[in-house]
Structures are given as structure tokens and as C-alpha cells.
Amino acid sequence: MAEDLGTTQILLDLLNLDGDNKARTDEDIFVGQTPKQNRNRVFGGQVLAQSIMAATRTVEGSRPMHSLHGYFLRPGDPNQNITFGVQRLRDGRSFSARRVHAYQNGEPILSMITSFQEPAEGLEHHDPMPLNVPDPDSLPTTAALVGHLDHPVAKEWAFERPFDIRHVTEPVYLAGDKSPIADSAVWLRTTSAMPDDLSLHRAALAYASDYVLLEPVLRAHGLAWVHPGLSLASLDHAMWWHRDLRVDEWLLYVLHSPSASSARGLGTGQFFNREGQLVATVAQEGMIRLPEFGKN
Question: What are the Acyl-CoA thioesterase 2 C-terminal domain coordinates in residue numbering (predicted)?
């Protein structure tokens, strides 16, 4: 795989939270750094991933996270680090539950409940991976698509993300899809190898899940990410991990938007590994405001 140790190291650094279990009231307290970024709010995937790592630090033994349900309450300030408070709701025979609040200036910017499960035997089935998907190595990189543009956001998309993203469907960075449909697909993986700690891989997948999850909403209406006056923000996020995975190996991210209404759009996604196994499912609703609809 192509090696870009710098961008992957940025991801690993933000997942390495400061704090320990001695700093607590009814919460375990951790602090996560916010890397420099070309936006006026913290990337939602960062807050999700750091919240996952904070919750994971409070769970004993070999119980991986299998689900989360969270709400983005306030935009995060990209010039400040984030404090995470983890409340231990329950530790049962098979499951553990945690509530995580991500704080800035004493106010929560994200509220999340997570669940962990002891590995167990049970029924097995999953949706099939789509057929006839082109190989990721045959597709252009984001750098090839927008790296030539003299714009800080384009440079971030092309060179500063810790994930290599290859679009199966027509990219909508600069122009809307000429035949609008509410579906998208990308291949993605980290730009270099990750440690073997599978909790890091689950957190990193949550980070990456926020990149293009609402893209099918834009695609369905022939819109591009650079549409003048477009205002888009994540409202909530739900995610389920079904099987172990590695984010430094190619994963196919298949996306769909079942609905948009009232200045909100819903996106759903499925992650498949190269063997065709469904490894995770995600859903998110976002606020999508456009100037042509006036104030809403």
C-alpha cells in the first residue's frame, strides 16, 4: 500500500487520549487533541473516534464496541482540545454500556451511548457485497481529482486526510452528478499501516464513516460539495460493528439516502471487506440548508 506515515500518525495521535482512571468524579476524564484543520468547526468523525477511544479505555477485558448512538449538540471549536467524560452505566455478564460526553468550555458538543460485548457464537448472515465493483487500484486518488486546485479545502481533501479514498461512483467534489441517484460508493483505507489494536481500527472506521455519509443526499439532487451557500452539519450518528476489520486494508463503503425533507437528509452506509463480508453499518441525519430555499 502507499505509505504516508504523516497523515496516519495524525490519526493515531488524536486517538491517543491523555488521562487515566484516577481523574474521575462519576465520570472518567480524558483529553483529546484537535489537529490543525481548514474548517471553522471540528470534523465530526474526529469527535466520534475520540469518544470511542475514551469509552474503550474504561472497559476491562476483551469486549469490543459493537454499537454507538450519538447526537452532535454544538459545533466544536477547532482551536481547542476536547475533554471527554465517560460514565460507566453497566457491566454485565456479556455486555458493558457507557455514556460519553465530549466537552468544550464546560458544555457538551457530543452526547453518545455505546455498548460493548464479550465475543460469542451465534447465527450468521449478512447482505451481499455489490457485484462488479471496480478494483480500488484501478480508480483515481482524491489527489488526482482535486489536488491541482489552489484552495485549502481541496488541498486537505487531497493530501491531509489519513484515508485514501477512491470513488466508485462519479465524484461530486466540484460538480453534481449528471444522472442524479441517491446512491454512492467509495473504497477507502488508511494511507499507511495501523497497529494491531482492533479498538483503534473500529474508532478509525467511525472517523472515516463521517467523510461521505451525506454525499448521496447531494447526489440525488445534482449538487456538489462546493455548491454556493451550501450549509451542511451532522445531527446524529449511529453505528454497528458486525465483524473484526482492519482500516489499513481496502473496505468498500456503499451509501444510500432513503429520504430528505425539512432541511434534513438521511444517509446510510455499509462497509464490506475484500472478502465480501459486511463488517459495519452506519446511519446519520444531517442538516442541509441551501440559499435558494431562503431561511429555514
Answer: 159-287
